[in-house]
Structures are given as structure tokens and as C-alpha cells.
Amino acid sequence: MEPPSETVTAQGAQERMGRLIAGTTVMAGLVWATVLTGTWLVYPWYREKLAGEEFAGCQGLEVPGDTCSPRDFLLSNVSGDTQDWHKFGMEWKEHIAWFSPLLATVAMFLVLYYRRGLMRNHTARWITIGVFVLAFVTAAIPGVFGALITKAAPVR
């Protein structure tokens, strides 16, 4: 099936390229804002060390409270074997999530660099698509971990 003729024209290509540039730029900016906000505004509450060295402040609690941060709650294992949620899930969430804005920025740079050349250069187009998909995957995995961790240790 051939594409509609108006998308193959120079004017159609220019209009679609404008949307592609705007879309990748906005997405890269949003990913940077999300990761920076999470790292510097949200995660400090999670990382508080309130319960002490032996996590005494978490004993007897069903959810984190004033004496037990979500991090302490997971590491204390008071509600089952939850230590791995912090050791693997949160570490992945805090560190691997930084790949997402970097990859989104690479995809944006490739779109800005090749512009209309992406229509002709199949290799550059597929690399750009692959990098952008990888950026979404590296954002989705920490998002899933975040949802599961919040279910195991709700933020107060």
C-alpha cells in the first residue's frame, strides 16, 4: 500500500519533520525533568534513615511511619522478605533510570542531525528508532519497580 501522496511531497515531509523534531525534543525534555525531579525531590523522602542501625523504629509496623522510612521498612524485613526490593529494585530505579534521558537525548540529537536524511537513510532511521525505544524501556522498567516498591512500602 502506498502512502498518501500529500505525505510524499516536500511540503508534507517538512511538516512531518517539524513534528518529529518537536516530539523528540519535548520527550527528551520531559524525561530529563522526570528523572531530575525523582532523584532530587522524591527519592530523598524514600532514602531517609529514621529507624536506626538495627531498624528498631520499624518493629511492629505494617507500613512505614514517622520512625521508619520506606527504605528502612524494606531493609528491615518486618513485613516479610522485602530487603531485595530495595537492594535490587530501588537501586535499579535510582541508577539505571538515568540511562533513559541520555538515550532520549541521543535520539533527539540523531533527529536534529539527520533531519530529512532520516527518510532516505534506513540505517540511521532504525538506529534512531532503536535508541528511542530503548529510552522508553529504560524508563518503563524503573516505573514498574517504583509501582511495586510503593505497594510493598507505601510512602507516607
Mean pLDDT: 89
> Helix-strand pattern, N to C?
HHHHHHH
Radius of gyration: 22 Å
The biggest sheet, with number of strands, parallel, antiparallel or mixed sense and barrel status, is: none
The secondary-structure class comes to: mainly alpha
Would you count the extended β strands for me? 0
Taking pLDDT < 50 over at least 5 consecutive residues as the criterion, the unreliable ranges are: none
**Number of structural units classed as domains:** 1
Alpha-carbon distance between the two ends: 55 Å
Structure description:
It is a single chain. The protein is an all-alpha fold. It has one domain. It is built from seven helices and no strands. It has helices at 5-8, 10-47, 70-76, 83-95, 99-114, 117-120, 122-152. Helix 3 crosses helix 4 (83-95) and helix 4 (83-95) packs antiparallel against helix 7 (122-152). The longest helix is centred in the first third of the chain and has 38 residues, at 10-47. It starts with a helix and ends with a helix.
